[in-house]
C-alpha cells in the first residue's frame, strides 16, 4: 500500500489510475495546454479547518495569476467571497457535473465548455464519485484533484500525504504561479 | 399456505363447467355494487403501460450516471471493464449497466416490502381470518387505500382482498427482476422506467402492509395525537429483564407484549426496540421503548443491557449472533428471510427451547411462529436476566481501560480510512491517551455505528466501543420522546390543506424518510425538520428519520414532537410510522387529487401523477438513505413527480435525475384549459439530487417545493423561504430568482425593493399561470372535457 | 390481464357469503376426484420447508467461496472491503456476501424463466383460452408435469391451471430476493439453502413454460425421432429475404412463420435464429434454420446477411441496435423486458411501421403483439431485402482490407488482455499482416464472440470482424444438423431405462446444458457428448450446448445427431429442446422415482430428491455456463442431488460445492432396510465443481456418475469408464479407486489383475450395498414401512 | 498502467496487491522461512508451449534442490512425469484449494498443512480465482505466482513481463537454487 491507494480503502474500482502530481510543474504544463480551465471547490474548503487556509490561498493565487473562474458548491459562497475570492457561480456538486458533461454548455460566462477542471474541498467519498462521474461523462476533460488524498478516478491527483507535505507542495505551486516567466506564458495563452 | 389452497380451488374450478360460469357473472355484479368510480386506463399496469409517462419525466430529468465501479461482474463472461466507452461481453454500456444496478436495487427493495407484506397478510389471515375488515381510520378515512386504488383499480375491504394485490406485485417484481438478466434490457431510460415501476409497486406494497397491521393490531388510526413514547438508551431500566427487538416485522414483538400482559409481567420487563419494529411496537404499546435507529445496534448491544435479542427481518446487522454472544445474550431469529444459520425450533417445546437458550447450549434459535417467540422470549429473558446480572456483560471499556487502549494507537489512520465519514479517530485517540475523552465523545455524535473501524485497527483497539465509552454521560442522557406513528392522513385533514398546498400557500410538504447513513449524525435531520415546521411547512417523518428527529431537545428541553403538533397541517411534525408508513405520504399526495380535486383515482395513475407533479409541492428528504428499500421508496416518489433529496452518500446510488434550469426549452407544460404550451420555469428543478450539506439540502427543499400551479401568492411565499434560507445559509442572494418569477405578482412583497432591480436586469416577464399538465390527454378543448 | 380479472373475482367473491362457501366444498371434491395420489409433506414449500434437506447436502458439500472482488458495493454504507476477515458496515462477512451474490444471481435466473413462463401463459391463454389442455406427449406421457407435481403437489390439466403455479413461483422468488437485502440473511449456508430453493423454483418455471408452448404450438411431443434441422451460417440462402430472430421467447417467431405461410411465402424467405428462440422455432417448423448459439450474434449480423432482426428476451446482446444499424437492418424489439429504448408501436398501423422501418426513419420499433410482429417483420424484411441487396451491407473486411488492418497492429496486447480467453491475437495479426490468415482463422474457432477486443484496440482494428474475415471459408462451410428439441421423455422410456440407471448398468445420464462461454470453442462439447454416447451413457442436451454438439462432423461426415439415436436410452444424444426444456432432464430423474420405483411425487420433494441423489447417476455439464439463468438451472439440479460440472469460467460463479473424499466420516448413509449407518464412499464426490479442461471434465463426469445404490455390476461398469478415461487422458492410474470399491465384486473384471495388488495395498474392504438414504424418515424398521 | 496491473484488465478487485518478485532472492527468503512449501502446476504447463520448458525446468529444479512436493491439476500428470518430475498428487484445482483452506488437512504426505504455495501454469482468469480463493480461505498461507503475468490476489507475483525477461528471471532463480550456499541453508531447514 502506498500514497497511491484510494484514501478510503474501499473506494477503489477504477481500471485507470490517476497520474500522481509529482511536482507543480505538472500543473503548469496542464494549464498551458488548457483552453478553458475551471476550479470547483466544495464545502470542506470551509468546514475542514485544516485545509481552509491552504485551499483559499491556492485558489486565490490561481485566480489572480491565471484568471481561472471559480465555482463553489453547497453553501460556502459567502464565506469564500469574504476571503477575497470572486466567484463565477454557485451550483450543486451534481449540477456542475451535469453541465460539464454537456458539450453544448457554454460555461458560466457563455464562452464555452471547460477542458481542465481543478477540484478540491470535498469529502473523500463524495469527491471520489465526482471524479468517477466526470471520468464517465466528460471523458475529454482533464480533471485534477488538489486535495492531499489520492483520487484514482481523477486524471491527475496528489498522492496521499500529510498536511505539511501537501502545504509545501501548494507553496511550491504558488511560487511557480508567481514566477514572472510562467505568468507571461500564461498571459499569451489567455489573450 | 391458505393462499395456496385458494388458488388450487380456483384453478380446478376453472376446469369444471356450468355452475362456475354462473359464479363469474354473480361476482361481476358484486364488483359493480362495491364501487361506482369509473375505471381508469391502467388498472394493474405492467411497466410498459406507464412507460410514456416515465419517459416524459426522464426527458426532463435526464439521468446522470455516477459509476461506483468501472466493472460489471454479474456474469461469467466478466468481469468487464465498461470505462472509457467500452462495452461488456454482452454488449452492455456503462449507462445501461449503472441503471441496471439501480433496477436491481429497486427490485430488492420492492421485494423486501412486498414479501414483508405477504408474510404479514398470511400471518394475520391465519390468525384472524380472510374477512377481517381493513380499517385504517374509521370514519375519518374514507379513501383508505389510495395507492391500491390508484394502481390496481380495486378497493380492498378485507385482508383477503389484499392477496389479489400481492399476486400482482409479486408477478411484476419478478418481471422487472428478469429484465436485469444478462442480455435483456439494453436501454438506460428503459431501465429507469422499470425502476420507476418498481418504486410504484413498492409503495403499493408499503400501503398494503401498513393497512394490514393497522387493521389487525389496532395501531393508531390516522391519529394526530398518538401517544408520546420514550426514546433513547437513557430511558431503559436495566434493573429489569430487558428484551431487545430489531427489524421490520412487528408480530413477534407484539406477541412478546401479549404474553407479558397475559402473565402480568407488563411493567416488570422492558421491551426495547431498534428500527421499524420498535416504531411499530410503540404504535401497539406506547410503553415499549425505542432505543434508536439502525445505527444504535452495536452501541446498545455492547452496553450489555439486553438480556435477550429478538431479530426479525430487514436492517438487522449480519453479525448480531456474534455481538449477542459477546454479551452472553441469547438470540431468537424469527424470519425465514434471516434464518441466521440457527436450528429451526419452531415445533419444539418452549420449555426445551428456553432451557437451551438460557444455559447457552445454543447461541440462538430460529422460531418461525410469533406466538411461540412471545412465550420463549419473555421466559428466556426473565431467566437470562437472573444469570446475566451476576456477570460482567457490558463490553464497553471503562474510562481507564479506554485510556490504555488509546495509548496503543500509533496513528496509522487505517480507522479513518475505513470510516465512511473519515472521522479523525487517531487524533481523538491521541487526546484520549492523555485522559481527555472529549474529542472521542464528539465523534460519537457523528458515528453511524458501522463498526468498520474495529476491523481496520491493527492494534486491536475496540474503536466503536471506545466511542461509546467516551460518550458514557451522553449515552445515559439519551432520554427523548417520539410521537407514536399515527398511520394515515385523515380525509378531513386533506380537505383542509389540499387547497393551500395546491395553491402554494402552505409552502410545502417535506417528508423526512429513510435510514441513518447520515454524514454528520442524526441531529441534522431534527434541525431540518424544525426549520421547516417553524416556517409552517408540513413536516412528515417515518422510520429512522422519525427517530432522529426525536433525538433532539430545544432550549426549553422539548423534543420536536413536543414542540410541534402532529396534525397534517402547517407547522406540524407528523410521524406517520415505520418504513411501510411511507405510503401514507405518497397516499396523502394522491388523496389531495382525489379528495380535494375530485379526480378519479381508480386505475388512473398517469393523470394523478401529472396532478401531483404539477401541483403538490412535496419533497422527500432521505438524508441517511442507505438501503435498497430506500432506493425503491424514492423511486415510488419519483414516478409521482415528487423530488427526493439525499445526503452526500446518496450519490452512491449511482445516478441522479437532474433538470437543467438553464435550458428554457425543458420547462414547458400544456395549459389544460387551452392546450397552449406555457413556459413555467424549472419547477421542480430536480427529481433526485444529492446535497453535500444540510445547508444545501435546506435551500434545495425550499426551492424544490415550487410547482407550476402555484398562485402568485403561493409562489411569493415559497420564494420568500427560498431567498431567506439562501441568504442566511449561503451568505449571498440566489442568482436564479428570475426563473421562478413569472410576473411581478410573484415577487415577495417584503423583498420587492431588493429584488426588482435584479429582476429587471434579467428582463422581468409577465407570464400566465396555466392549469398545468404534461399530458395531451388532459387538454380540455381537445378532448371535450377531462373527466 | 385476464389473470388480474380472475383475482378480482376471487377476492370479491370472498367478501360475499353463502353460495361461495358451497363452492369451496364442491371444488374440494373435484380435487379429490382428479388425483388419488397421497399428498406428501411439502406441497408449495417455502424455503424453510426444505432447509433441513439442503443443510444435509451442504454439510457434505461445503461451499468453497471464491471472491470475485474484495468489495461489497450493494448499499451506500459501502463500498466495504470484506477481505482479510473484515466485516462490512452492515456486519456481513465475505462468505455470506459471496453466497448473497449467488442468491441474487439465482433469483435473477429464476425470475427470468418464471417471468417468461408468465408471459407465455398469459399470451397463450389470451389466444387459446384458459381451458386449453396441457399435452406434452399424449398417451406416451402420463406423468406430464413431474416437477410441478413434486413441488406444488398439483396436477395441472389446462393452461389456466398453470397460473396457480406461477403465483406460487412469483411469491417465492420475491421472498428470496428480499433475503438479499442489506441486513437480512446473515448465514452463508442459509443463503445457499435459498439458492437451492431458487433453483427448484426455476425448474418448476422451466417445466411450466415448455409444457405451455409444447401444448399450444404442438411442438414435438416427447418425440425421439424429431426432425433434423439445418444449423450453421452456411445453410442460409442470402439471396432470399432473411429474418433473424434472437432470444428465448418463440411466439413472435412463430407468428412470422404463420404469416409467411398464410401469404404463401414459405420457402421464399429464410427465417433464421440464434439462441433458444431458434431452437423452439425449429421445434415448430423444421424449415427454420439455426444460425448458432449466443456467441454467433456478432459474426452473423456483421456478415450483413440478415435483412431484419427480431429480438425478444434473454441473451440478446445489449448492442444489437447499434450492430443492426451498422448493416442497415431494421430491428424489432418484442418484449417488455427489453424495450431497447424504442418507440412502442404496438397500436400503430402495420403499413406505417413497415414504412418507417424500411425507410430508416427509425432504427427499430417496439411491438408487443406477436401477431403484429409476424406481419411487420415479414413485410419489412421483404422490402428491406430489396433495398439492401443493392448496397454493401456486410461489414466483414475483405482479405485485402484485413491485411491492411493487420498491418496497423502494434502488438500492444490490449486485445489479449481484454479477451476472456487470452487469445493470442497480436501474434495472429502479425502473421496476417504477411498475408497468412490461418492463425486468425484458428482463433475464430475458439472465439466466444464477446467483442471486447474491438473496444480494447487503440488502432481501431475491427478485431472480431477480422476473425470472421480470416475464417471466411469455414464460415461458409458451417452446414450442420441438429435434431429438433423433442420435449419430454416418454414414460415408457423411463420404464425401460429406470432399472439399468438405478442399478448403475447404464453408467450415467449426462446433461450438456448452458451457454457458450466455452474456454476452447464449441467443439469440446461435441467431443464430450460423443465420447459418452459411444460409451453408452445417455447424453442429453439443451440450448446452446445442443447446438454446439451439432456443429461437428465425424470422419463419415455425420453430425452427432445423425451418428447417434435420439431415444432416452443408452448411446443416445437427446436434444430435449431450449433452456426451458432443461426441466425435462430433472423431470426424467424424478420420473424414474415415480414410474420405475413407484414413489409418490405429490408434494414429496425430500424423499424424491433423496432417491435421485442416492440412485440416479446423472451429471450436468454446463461447459460454457455464463448467465444467471445457468446459475439457477444448476441450483435446481443440486437440490435434487445431481452434480454439475462447469468449465473454467464457471469458477466465477463465486463458489463451489465440494466433497472431501479424504474424509471417510462424510460418506455415511442409512440403510433404509435396517437403519444402520453404512459408509458408501464419496459418491458423488462433488455437487458443483469447475473443471480446467475437457479432459478433466470427462474424467469427472465418469466419476460423478457413481451412486451408493450401484450394484456391483453397475459399479464395475462405471469404474471401467472412469479408469479407462483417466488412464487415457491423464496418462496414469487414478489414486482413489479404493474409495469406490466396496467389495471385490465391484472390481471391473478386465482390470482385476491390474487393480487387485493396488487395492490390497490400501486394504480391500467387503462392505454391504445398502438401500441408501440420508433421511431417517426413510428407515423402514423405524417407521413401519415407507409408503 | 504498468507491469503491476492485472493482466486481464478487468480481473482487478483486490484491495491488497501482491508484492512484486523483483529478484529471485525474494523467493529464496520465503523458502527459508517456510516450513511446508508446495508447488501446484496447472494444465497450461503443458498446453502453453511457450511456458512448458521454462516451467518444467523450474519445477524440476525446485524438486531436486529443495525437495518441494509437486501437485498437478487437470490431466497433465502423465506428461509431467514423462518429463522426469515426481508427483506427490493429482487433484482438481478446486479440490486443492478446498484442502489448503482446511487447517486439519495433513497434506499429501500426512505431515501437515502447507504454509507456502507456488502456483503456475493456469489460464489467467482461473489463476486469478485460485489466488483470490486462497487469499480468502487460507489467509495464513503465502501464495506465490510464478507465471509471467501479475496476479494481484497472490502474496507475491512476477510483474507482467515478456517471455524472454521471465525466462531470464527463472534462470537466475535456478542459478540461485543451485548455489551451494543456498542449498546448504535449505538443507538445514528441511532436516
UniProtKB/TrEMBL annotation, chains A, D:
Transmembrane segments: none annotated. Coiled coil: none annotated. GO terms for biological process: methanogenesis, from acetate. It comes from the Archaea. This is Acetyl-CoA decarbonylase/synthase epsilon subunit.
From TrEMBL, chains B, C:
Gene3D superfamilies: 3.30.70.20, 3.40.50.2030, Carbon monoxide dehydrogenase alpha subunit. Chain M, domain 1 (1.10.8.190). Its EC number is 1.2.7.4. GO terms for biological process: acetyl-CoA metabolic process; response to hydrogen peroxide. [Ni-4Fe-4S] cluster binds at residues 248, 276, 315, 515, 544, 579. [4Fe-4S] cluster 3 binds at residues 409, 412, 415, 457. The keyword Cell division does not apply. [4Fe-4S] cluster 2 binds at residues 72, 75, 80, 90. [4Fe-4S] cluster 4 binds at residues 419, 447, 450, 453. Residues 399-429, 437-467 form the 4Fe-4S ferredoxin-type domain. Keywords: 4Fe-4S, Iron, Iron-sulfur, Metal-binding, Nickel, Oxidoreductase, Repeat. Part of the ACDS complex that catalyzes the reversible cleavage of acetyl-CoA, allowing autotrophic growth from CO(2). The alpha-epsilon subcomponent functions as a carbon monoxide dehydrogenase. This is Acetyl-CoA decarbonylase/synthase complex subunit alpha.
Amino acid at each position: 500500500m502506498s500514497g497511491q491507494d484510494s484514501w478510503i480503502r474501499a473506494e477503489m474500482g477504477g481500471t485507470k489510475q490517476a497520474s500522481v502530481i509529482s511536482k507543480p510543474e505538472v500543473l503548469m504544463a496542464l494549464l498551458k495546454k488548457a483552453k478553458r480551465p475551471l476550479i470547483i471547490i466544495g464545502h470542506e474548503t470551509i468546514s475542514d479547518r485544516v485545509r481552509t487556509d491552504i485551499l483559499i490561498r491556492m485558489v486565490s493565487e490561481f485566480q489572480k495569476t491565471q484568471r481561472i473562474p471559480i465555482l463553489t458548491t453547497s453553501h460556502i459562497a459567502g464565506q469564500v467571497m469574504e476571503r477575497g475570492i470572486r466567484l463565477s457561480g454557485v451550483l450543486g456538486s451534481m449540477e456542475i457535473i451535469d453541465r460539464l458533461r454537456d458539450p453544448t454548455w457554454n460555461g458560466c460566462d457563455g464562452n464555452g465548455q471547460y477542458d481542465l477542471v481543478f477540484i478540491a474541498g470535498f469529502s473523500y467519498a463524495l469527491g471520489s464519485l465526482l471524479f468517477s462521474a466526470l471520468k464517465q461523462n466528460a471523458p475529454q476533460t482533464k480533471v485534477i484533484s488538489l486535495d492531499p488524498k489520492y483520487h484514482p478516478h481523477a486524471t491527475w491527483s496528489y498522492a496521499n500525504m500529510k498536511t505539511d507535505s501537501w502545504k509545501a507542495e501548494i507553496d511550491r505551486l504558488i511560487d511557480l504561479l508567481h514566477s514572472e516567466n510562467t505568468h507571461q506564458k500564461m498571459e499569451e495563452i489567455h489573450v | 399456505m391458505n393462499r395456496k389452497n385458494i388458488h388450487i380451488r380456483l384453478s380446478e374450478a376453472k376446469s369444471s363447467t356450468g355452475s362456475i360460469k354462473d359464479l363469474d357473472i354473480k361476482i361481476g355484479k358484486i364488483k359493480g355494487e362495491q364501487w361506482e368510480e369509473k375505471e381508469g386506463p391502467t388498472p394493474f399496469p405492467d411497466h410498459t403501460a406507464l412507460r410514456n409517462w416515465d419517459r416524459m419525466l426522464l426527458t426532463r430529468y435526464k439521468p446522470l450516471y455516477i459509476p461506483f465501479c468501472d466493472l460489471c461482474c454479474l456474469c461469467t463472461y466478466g468481469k468487464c471493464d465498461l470505462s472509457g466507452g467500452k462495452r461488456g461481453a454482452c454488449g452492455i454500456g456503462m449507462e445501461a449497466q449503472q441503471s441496471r444496478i439501480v433496477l436491481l436495487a429497486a427490485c430488492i427493495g420492492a421485494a423486501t416490502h412486498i414479501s414483508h407484506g405477504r408474510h404479514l397478510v398470511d400471518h394475520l389471515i391465519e390468525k384472524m381470518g380472510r374477512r377481517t375488515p381493513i380499517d385504517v381510520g374509521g370514519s375519518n378515512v374514507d379513501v383508505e387505500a389510495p395507492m391500491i386504488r390508484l394502481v390496481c383499480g380495486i378497493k380492498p375491504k378485507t385482508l383477503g382482498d389484499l392477496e389479489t394485490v400481492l399476486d400482482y406485485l409479486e408477478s411484476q417484481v419478478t418481471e422487472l427482476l428478469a429484465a436485469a438478466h444478462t442480455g435483456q434490457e439494453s436501454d438506460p431510460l428503459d431501465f429507469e422506467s422499470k425502476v420507476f415501476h418498481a418504486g410504484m409497486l413498492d409503495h403499493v406494497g408499503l400501503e398494503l402492509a401498513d393497512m394490514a397491521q393497522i387493521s389487525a393490531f389496532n395501531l393508531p388510526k390516522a391519529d394526530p395525537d398518538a401517544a408520546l413514547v420514550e426514546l433513547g438508551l437513557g430511558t431503559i431500566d436495566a434493573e429489569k429483564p430487558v428484551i431487545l427487538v430489531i427489524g421490520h416485522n412487528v408480530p413477534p414483538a407484539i406477541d412478546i407484549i401479549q404474553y407479558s400482559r397475559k402473565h402480568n409481567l407488563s411493567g416488570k420487563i422492558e421491551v426495547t426496540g431498534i428500527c421499524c419494529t420498535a416504531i411499530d411496537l410503540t404504535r401497539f404499546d406506547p410503553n415499549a421503548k425505542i432505543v434508536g435507529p439502525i445505527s444504535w445496534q452495536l452501541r446498545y448491544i455492547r452496553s450489555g443491557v439486553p438480556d435477550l435479542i429478538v431479530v426479525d427481518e430487514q436492517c438487522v446487522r449480519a453479525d448480531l449472533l456474534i455481538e449477542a454472544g459477546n454479551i452472553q445474550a441469547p438470540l431468537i431469529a424469527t424470519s425465514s428471510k434471516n434464518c441466521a444459520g440457527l436450528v429451526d425450533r419452531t415445533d419444539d417445546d418452549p420449555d426445551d427451547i428456553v432451557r437451551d437458550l438460557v444455559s447457552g447450549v445454543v447461541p440462538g434459535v430460529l422460531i418461525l411462529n410469533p406466538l411461540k417467540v412471545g412465550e420463549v422470549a419473555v421466559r428466556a429473558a426473565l431467566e437470562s436476566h437472573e444469570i446475566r446480572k451476576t456477570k460482567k456483560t457490558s463490553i464497553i471499556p471503562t474510562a481507564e481501560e479506554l485510556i490504555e487502549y488509546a495509548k496503543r494507537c500509533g496513528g496509522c489512520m487505517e480507522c479513518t480510512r475505513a470510516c465512511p465519514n473519515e472521522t479523525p479517530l487517531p487524533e481523538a485517540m491521541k487526546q484520549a491517551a492523555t485522559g481527555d475523552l472529549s474529542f472521542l465523545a464528539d465523534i460519537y455524535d457523528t458515528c453511524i455505528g458501522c463498526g468498520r473501524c474495529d476491523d481496520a485497527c491493527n492494534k486491536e483497539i475496540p474503536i466503536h466501543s471506545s466511542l461509546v465509552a467516551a460518550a458514557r454521560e451522553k449515552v445515559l442522557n439519551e432520554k427523548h420522546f417520539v410521537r407514536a406513528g399515527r398511520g394515515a392522513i385523515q380525509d378531513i385533514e386533506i380537505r383542509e390543506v389540499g387547497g393551500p398546498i395546491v395553491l402554494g400557500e402552505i409552502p410545502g410538504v417535506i417528508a423526512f424518510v429513510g435510514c441513518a447513513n447520515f454524514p454528520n449524525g442524526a441531529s441534522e435531520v431534527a434541525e431540518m425538520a424544525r426549520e421547516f415546521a417553524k416556517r409552517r411547512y408540513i413536516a412528515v417523518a417515518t422510520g429512522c428519520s422519525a427517530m432522529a428527529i426525536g433525538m433532539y431537545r430545544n432550549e426549553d428541553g422539548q423534543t420536536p414532537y413536543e414542540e410541534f403538533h402532529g396534525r397534517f397541517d402547517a407547522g406540524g411534525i407528523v410521524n406517520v410510522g415505520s418504513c411501510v408508513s411511507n405510503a401514507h405520504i405518497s397516499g396523502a399526495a394522491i388523496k389531495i387529487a382525489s379528495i380535494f380535486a375530485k379526480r378519479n383515482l381508480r386505475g388512473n395513475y398517469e393523470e394523478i401523477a401529472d396532478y401531483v407533479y404539477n401541483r403538490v409541492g412535496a419533497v422527500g428528504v432521505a438524508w441517511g438513505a442507505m438501503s435498497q428499500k430506500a432506493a425503491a421508496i424514492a423511486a415510488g416518489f419519483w414516478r409521482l413527480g415528487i423530488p427526493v433529496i439525499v445526503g452526500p452518500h446518496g450519490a452512491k446510488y449511482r445516478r441522479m435525475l437532474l433538470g437543467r434550469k438553464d435550458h428554457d426549452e425543458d420547462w414547458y407544460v400544456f395549459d389544460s384549459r387551452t392546450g397552449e404550451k406555457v413556459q413555467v420555469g424549472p419547477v421542480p428543478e430536480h427529481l433526485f439530487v444529492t446535497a453535500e450539506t444540510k445547508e444545501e439540502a435546506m435551500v434545495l427543499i425550499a426551492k424544490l417545493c415550487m410547482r407550476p400551479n402555484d398562485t402568485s401568492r403561493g409562489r411569493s411565499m415559497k420564494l420568500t423561504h427560498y431567498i431567506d434560507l439562501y441568504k442566511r445559509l449561503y451568505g449571498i442572494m440566489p442568482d436564479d430568482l428570475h426563473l421562478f418569477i413569472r410576473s411581478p405578482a410573484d415577487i415577495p412583497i417584503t423583498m420587492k425593493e431588493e429584488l426588482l432591480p435584479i429582476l429587471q436586469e434579467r428582463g422581468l416577464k409577465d407570464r400566465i399561470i396555466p392549469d398545468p399538465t404534461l399530458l395531451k390527454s388532459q387538454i380540455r378543448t381537445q378532448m371535450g372535457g377531462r373527466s
